[in-house]
Specification:
Elements: H1 5-33, E1 34-35, E2 38-39, H2 42-48, H3 51-82, H4 89-97, H5 104-115, H6 120-127, H7 143-171, H8 175-183, H9 188-216, H10 220-225, H11 233-244, H12 247-271
Antiparallel strand pairs: 1-2
Length: about 280
């Protein structure tokens, strides 16, 4: 029984992976590369021949490239600040984590109402005399502003998940390392660069992998703030599935998201290996 116990404990996780990841993946592969029961690349040709596919790929990657580094930078700063002891820390921590409880759809609706021509931001700027006419954030001719609106919403809503992971990693670093470095004359930035950041690499790696997976699947907030003005892979997959009823092309979009996620995850694992300040012989 003792020999079987580890396998029994792993069984729920294995069943979850098989039924909720393995089966959908196999089904997506079948739909993407078969037609009338026969192997075909027709779905692939139609997908890559659609200009929306390349735009969706471009905007999905562009959003990830812009948002994720800023979120990591902000999360590091906030985590370092919140790792200290000060009055009102619990209230500040609670305020920072609140956006984490809000769905992307709800977040999109909040920021849509704030950024419309008659929204809170424009009214505030007009009343302060900083602008003479409303800033237009929405509409096909203002796609750059729609992109900015998406970035702002995602920074507000999703930075919290990176922050929580980084803060947990900081709290696991023994103060003995930092105190010893301080005794030997290391200043604050040297301690950060030589001790804190290397020891944070596992947390940074985990945060980047999780955040990148979400970034590749971004959909709800984009659909609300920009619709198809700014196509993304998940949004176009949804459009092909529900409006066009083209299950093969929709599967290609899903597989593209999966492939990008796996590729980027592998890169994080390769280039963000943990360093534990061990003496190498």
């Amino acid at each position: 029984m003792k020999l079987r116990l580890p396998y029994l404990l792993l069984l729920p996780a294995v069943l979850y992976l098989v039924f909720f990841i393995g089966y959908p993946l196999v089904q997506a592969l079948y739909l993407a590369f078969t037609q009338n029961g026969h192997f075909t690349l027709d779905n692939v040709r139609r997908t890559i021949g659609d200009p929306y596919f390349w735009q969706a790929l471009k905007y999905t990657i562009a959003l990830a490239v812009v948002i994720i580094p800023i979120q990591l930078f902000l999360a590091l700063i906030l985590a370092v600040v919140m790792n200290r002891t000060f009055k009102g820390k619990d209230l500040a921590l609670y305020a920072l984590i609140i956006p984490l409880t809000i769905s992307d759809v709800a977040g999109g609706l909040i920021w849509y109402t704030m950024l419309t021509d008659a929204g809170f931001l424009n009214k505030l700027l007009l009343n302060l005399g900083l602008i003479t006419q409303p800033i237009h954030f929405f509409g096909y001719e203002y796609r750059n502003m729609e992109f900015l609106a998406i970035v702002i919403e995602e920074l507000w809503r999703a930075t919290a998940i990176v922050f929580v992971i980084i803060l947990a990693g900081l709290q696991m670093i023994s103060r003995e390392y930092l105190e010893a470095a301080e005794v030997f004359g290391a200043d604050y930035w040297t301690r950060m660069r030589k001790i804190v950041i290397p020891l944070l690499k596992p947390s940074i790696q985990s945060a980047l992998i999780i955040r990148t997976l979400f970034a590749m699947q971004v959909f709800g907030v984009v659909w609300i703030l920009a619709g198809r003005d700014i196509p993304v892979l998940a949004g176009e997959g949804f459009y092909q599935l529900t409006f066009i009823k083209d299950y093969g092309v929709a599967s290609i979009y899903a597989l593209t998201i999966a492939a990008l996620s796996i590729l980027l995850g592998a890169m994080y694992v390769k280039f963000l290996k943990a360093e534990y300040l061990e003496v190498r012989t």
